[in-house]
Design a protein that fits this description.
10 helices, alpha/beta, metal ion binding, eight-stranded parallel β-sheet, about 15% strand, metal-binding
């Protein structure tokens, strides 16, 4: 099984053992990447949420052949563009410079889009102003878009529709929308990224069933968006008291411990990581009444076609 995690926030300091500025345990990035590899994850897209994170994502991607990066500005970070020396022109010129200098590692423009759930970080006006600037980047570079949409009352779809001629492909990652929103995204030729947060409620599961396999991509959005015991999807996972393997190829979920009791070979409780994408695959395979292998293969093909057709890799 070959899997690509399209959304991994690996620049988060928790993967270096730091939580809220405090070093709690040793840097376990390498161990985390080993667990990902052992679970079948052959590629990860490290998310760039602003200039600083995009630089860090690119740097990290150069340390491991399985890692690649995105470059853009998350909607909740767009307020920093207003304060950037030289304003939006200078900010997006810097992003363009980063992309052009690292075409072998940057596979998407983004994360970009709109988020009306967190307007205390950035207003609707500012978000919309700078979301539109990302279409200049995708036009100039030919890269696909890594997109974010939260509770935007049609504004996101409207903006995509108005600019659809300016980009080749894109994925709406961490999808939690309605059946109507899914239908709108599919009509626009977009792909849909699914993680644990996409599978929280019974309503989420009903919509996830409707995603065509030729439009599906898989992600963890780690260190966030794990599948939790309170999620509707949790009942579709093997129960820990059974002796059954967690997946068709005998993969089992690694042991996890609280960060204060961390050991080198275990995961950290409540810190999601790429290997848990296997649980997303398991849930989605059951919803689609297909094998985990088939579902993973289809998502892998979609991801390679959109993001990796112009970069060298050994998948």
């Amino acid at each position: 099984m070959k899997i690509i995690d399209i959304g991994a926030n690996l620049t988060d300091p928790v993967f270096r053992g730091r939580y809220r500025g405090k070093q709690v345990h040793d840097d376990d990035m390498d161990k985390m990447l080993e667990r990902a590899h052992d679970s079948g994850v052959v590629g990860m897209m490290v998310t760039g949420g602003n200039i600083k994170e995009s630089i860090e994502a690119i740097k990290l991607s150069r340390s491991n052949p399985s890692l690649f990066a995105t470059a853009g500005c998350h909607p909740t970070r767009t307020s920093e563009i207003e304060k950037y020396p030289g304003g939006g022109d200078a900010y997006f010129a810097k992003l363009r410079e980063l992309i052009d200098a690292n075409r072998d590692k940057v596979v998407a423009v983004g994360e970009c889009g709109l988020d009306y759930d967190r307007l205390h970080f950035s207003s609707k006006e500012v978000q919309n102003k700078h979301f539109s600037r990302h279409f200049e980047l995708t036009e100039a570079t030919g890269l696909p878009l890594f997109l974010h949409d939260r509770n935007t009352a049609g504004d996101f779809v409207r903006t995509i529709r108005e600019n659809r001629h300016r980009f080749t492909d894109g994925v709406v990652h961490s999808f939690t929308g309605t059946k109507q929103e899914l239908e709108e995204f599919l009509k626009l030729g977009l792909y849909v990224g699914i993680n644990g947060c996409s599978l929280k409620t019974k309503e989420n599961l009903e919509v996830a069933k409707l995603i065509p396999l030729d439009r599906l991509m898989l992600e963890t959005d780690c260190p966030y968006c794990e599948i939790r015991p309170t999620h509707a999807s949790h009942s579709l996972l093997p129960q820990p008291q059974t002796a059954e393997p967690a997946n068709e190829d005998e993969w089992r979920m690694p042991e996890s411990k609280r960060k204060e009791k961390w050991c080198g070979d275990c995961m950290v409780k409540s810190r999601n990581e790429p290997c848990t994408i296997r649980q997303v695959i398991q849930v989605m395979a059951r919803l689609h009444e297909t094998s985990e292998q088939e579902l993973a293969d289809r998502a892998f093909e979609n991801t390679c076609k959109v993001f990796f057709k112009n970069v060298s890799h050994n998948f």
